[in-house]
Amino acid sequence: MTISPVTRRVLLLGGTGEARLLAGRLDADPAVEVISSLAGRTAAPRALPGRVRVGGFGGADGLAAWLRDERVDAVVDATHPFAARMSGNAVRACESAGVPLLVLRRPGWSPGPGDDWRRVPSLAAAAADLPGERVFLTTGRTGLAAFAGDGRRRYVVRSVDPPEPPLPSRTTVVLARGPFTVEEETALMREHRVDVLVTKDSGGAMTSAKLTAARDLGVPVVMVDRPPVPDGVPVAATVGDAAAWLAHAG
Ligand code: NAP
């Protein structure tokens, strides 16, 4: 008689490179069933190991019901550092369903010698005080409304899928999926004669080449600060730490 291993079901709230890596690691473990959840914002997301579900849960209550129905043993919130609504919902849903929750959040970026960064608390604050006329916006395709009223400056907007209106009137859209090299970022910023870069403090190596290019070109960076991680929830900074937490959770 074969005794099958006890399977623990893990819900991975995804949309990041770390979530993808963790999904691969968990999927390789026969004692774990991993379900990756995507919001469905990207039209053609890269394939993920394990089971995948797409679309919102219907708020914290919807997620709590889903966790109960699916008998989930643990949740890892590996969403993007700026996906604050989903992170807040995960806290409330896990409390209500009695399921352990970990936040997997890569550290933010820090300036080095030669960097000219101005930290701002929001996209609106970034738009209100731009130290340049030709703006490279890498804030995601849904974060452009704050700049839409500016008919004077030129904007280069880069995103994976076409950006959602409203957009500033003088906008050039560059559709591309990272990671990008420093050479590519430098060439793009030169081509469009960019004199200010606006980015969210996403952290990680996948999208940091633009910061090196900006430093090399002497272009100032307006860095939008992250929302805080919800209080009282354990946080892992790496995929390895998240896997170690899961080995003991639930
Ligand atoms: P958000 O504002 O925090 O979430 C809005 C709503 O989208 C949530 O309330 C939830 O709907 C749904 N949702 C978000 N993430 C989900 C997930 N992983 N699975 C199922 N439903 C999800 O988040 P967002 O900023 O729109 O980001 C959406 C997704 O894109 C996230 O998965 C995030 O990791 C990824 N992403 C975001 C950014 C960014 O800058 N914000 C950048 C790169 C990738 P319900 O309330 O109906 O459950």
| Whole-angstrom Rg | 20 Å
Low-pLDDT sequence parts: none
Strand content: 15-25%
SSE class:
alpha/beta
Ligands bound, unique: NADP nicotinamide-adenine-dinucleotide phosphate
* Helix-strand string: EHEEHEHEEHEEEHEHEEH
Q: What is the oligomer described by this structure? A: single chain
Mean pLDDT: 94
What's the number of helices?
A: 7
Sequence of strands across the biggest β-sheet: 3-2-1-4-5-12
Rounded to the nearest angstrom, the distance between the terminal CA atoms is 28 Å
Query: Main β-sheet: number of strands, strand sense, barrel status?
Result: 6 strands, parallel
In total, the number of strands is: 12
Bulk shape = elongated
Helix content: 25-40%
Describe the structure.
The protein has 250 residues and is an alpha/beta fold. The chain is 28% helix and 22% strand. The chain has helices at residues 17-27, 59-69, 84-97, 123-128, 182-191, 209-217, 239-248, and strands spanning 8-13, 32-38, 51-54, 74-77, 101-104, 117-120, 134-137, 154-159, 171-175, 196-200, 221-224, 235-236. The strands form two sheets. Strands 3-2-1-4-5-12 form a six-stranded parallel β-sheet, with helices on both faces. A six-stranded parallel β-sheet has the order 6-11-10-7-8-9. Helix 6 (209-217) links the parallel strand 10 (196-200) and strand 11. The model has no long low-confidence stretch (mean pLDDT 94). NADP nicotinamide-adenine-dinucleotide phosphate (NAP) binds next to strand 2, helix 2 and helix 3.
